[in-house]
Specification:
About 45% of the residues lie in helices and about 20% in strands. It has an eight-stranded mixed beta sheet with strand order 7-6-5-8-9-14-11-10, sandwiched between helices. The protein has a domain of about 55 residues. The longest helix has 25 residues. It is an alpha+beta fold. Helix 3 packs across helix 4 and helix 6 packs parallel to helix 14. It contains 16 helices and 16 strands. About 5% of the residues have low confidence. It is elongated and about 115 Å long.
């Protein structure tokens, strides 16, 4: 191929791309006509680029870099892609071991972190932000594999936690939350129940989650929405122990998980426990024991043997002031309701006597005794874990609350728009995988996933249309030193 310049009848100079075959000239493309040297040089430049395009020769430059000079007056900016973010999350997924999983599953996890949306919208966003295409039906093709995929994901997550966070099964934190649906119709899985989202009229599911002492997610389970949360801990913990052949195990959970039956089963299965105690429900004899023996000074505690294990009670002056303020506020409200009874209001410090509403003086006295006192149940002997250790471990339960916050707020796990069990469970699996990656990012960078996203979104690839070749050229952004440091932390061996 050659460039041919010929004069036209209007004394202009025409530029053509020609090819000679069998001693005959074939005009492949007419580039244009010029009436000035400047315009002529420009047309010749375009012709050279067209010849490169026609020749299909391999470039010595990488695929994502322009293989020729870009001439700004012949270029159009067509958009951006967030390939840096996609490739970084992809590298983290490989590091965890998710590279063996379906590509679509990993891509749905990535877009869930980047910009949560419905599954169909996620497919559109993947193409828009990352240039990745998947068919609409692909999601429902992998949905039937959700159970075996969950087992595989959890195996990889636990192995990753062992290697990167020294996870040894010695202590885990357990809690549950509810996720509601944008519908009012129930089925076997989606049931109305006590909602932590104040959506009691809408069907929901119950999610149980276990995390390590760092707050790194380890495993999860899905229950129907009307399941009592206290009935979830035994099957989840037992299944986890059996699957991983765990010998020494301590679970930390809030007060809702404790019952006499749960305690029996935990002990029978050699599971150690640290759970919150609801002191408002304890027998009067136990209350009297606490009142007579606890020293109401910061850091003081007592240990009492009960049917639910050792009850450890500690006192805090800060908690005392908070409890006192709340009690006085509730007593004042109760007095107002007693003075002006209302059918719609039944407050903590009121009771009915002969169909008359009155102040519950007995409950007030009981509450006064417990001001500033917090209780914890455990089966661990003081020689194994003293009171201070038990209290510290329980207070670390906030880490699982952080995990739920990330899941519900940043990853927008709720509401759920699916209606069939398999797509619902696949949605939860995607959110769990996204939570694993997000928590790893937070733990390694000491920064929130939101800040990480903000910084990552600053590194974008520009897409420029080279009008000379009619091809789009990707121009990669330079990774700043701060993000290079982040990459090192996230992808380092340990």
């Amino acid at each position: 191929m050659k460039i041919r310049v010929v004069k036209t009848s209007s004394n202009a100079r025409a530029v053509q791309v020609v090819h000679y075959q069998n001693n005959k000239r074939v005009i492949l493309q007419h580039i244009g006509s010029a009436h000035s040297d400047e315009k002529l040089n420009e047309l010749i430049l375009i012709a050279k680029e067209r010849i490169k395009s026609f020749s299909n020769q391999l470039s010595v430059f990488p695929d994502d870099q322009p293989n020729s000079l870009l001439h700004l007056n012949h270029c159009t900016f067509v958009g951006v892609k967030y390939r840096f973010f996609y490739e970084l999350i992809n590298s983290i997924q490989d590091k965890i071991g998710f590279d063996d999983l379906p590509v679509l599953l990993n891509d749905l996890v990535t877009i869930r972190i980047f910009e949560p949306a419905s599954k169909l919208r996620s497919l559109e966003l993947m193409e828009q932000f990352f240039g990745i295409k998947h068919s609409r039906n692909a999601y429902y093709k992998i949905a039937p594999k959700c159970i075996e995929l969950k087992e595989l994901v959890e195996q990889k997550v636990i192995a990753f936690a062992k290697e990167n966070y020294a996870f040894q099964f010695d202590i885990v934190f357990y809690d549950v939350t509810t996720l509601y649906f944008e519908t009012f119709e129930e089925d076997e899985l989606r049931k109305n129940g006590f909602s932590k989202d104040n959506k009691s009229q809408q069907p929901q599911i119950l999610i149980a989650l276990m995390v390590s002492k760092e707050g790194f997610p380890i495993t999860y389970e899905v229950f129907s929405g009307n399941t009592f949360e206290g009935h979830t801990i035994i099957p989840v913990v037992n299944q986890f122990i059996e699957a991983n052949k765990v010998k020494e195990f301590t679970v930390v959970a809030d007060a809702a998980m404790i019952s006499t039956e749960n305690v029996k089963q935990l002990i029978q299965n050699n599971i150690n426990y640290i759970v919150g105690a609801r002191l408002g429900n304890i027998p009067s004899s136990l209350l009297e024991n606490i009142d007579n023996n606890i020293i109401r000074e910061d850091g003081k505690s007592i240990r009492i043997k009960t049917d639910n294990g050792f009850l450890i009670c500690s006192f805090s002056s800060v908690r005392y002031r908070k409890d006192l303020y709340e009690m006085n506020k509730q007593i004042e409200k109760a007095k107002q309701v007693v003075e002006k009874p209302s059918k719609s209001k039944k407050l903590k410090f009121t009771k009915t006597n002969n169909h008359q509403l009155e102040i519950n003086e007995g409950l007030i006295e009981k509450t006064k005794i417990l001001l500033g006192i917090k209780g914890y149940y455990t089966n661990l002997e003081a020689s194994v874990a003293d009171d201070k250790t038990i209290i510290e471990r329980y207070h670390e339960l906030y880490k699982i609350e952080q995990a739920f916050r990330i899941s519900k707020s940043d990853l927008q796990t709720r509401p759920i728009f699916h209606f069939k069990e398999q797509p619902i469970k696949l949605h939860i699996l995607i959110c769990f995988m996204a939570l694993v990656i997000s928590k790893h990012i937070e733990l390694k960078t000491s920064s929130s996933i939101r800040k990480f996203l903000d910084e990552s979104k600053k590194i974008i690839d520009g897409q420029i249309l080279n009008e000379m070749t009619n091809k789009i050229v990707n121009v990669k952004a330079i990774t700043n030193s701060k993000m290079k440091d982040t990459i090192q932390k996230l992808l380092s061996p340990h």
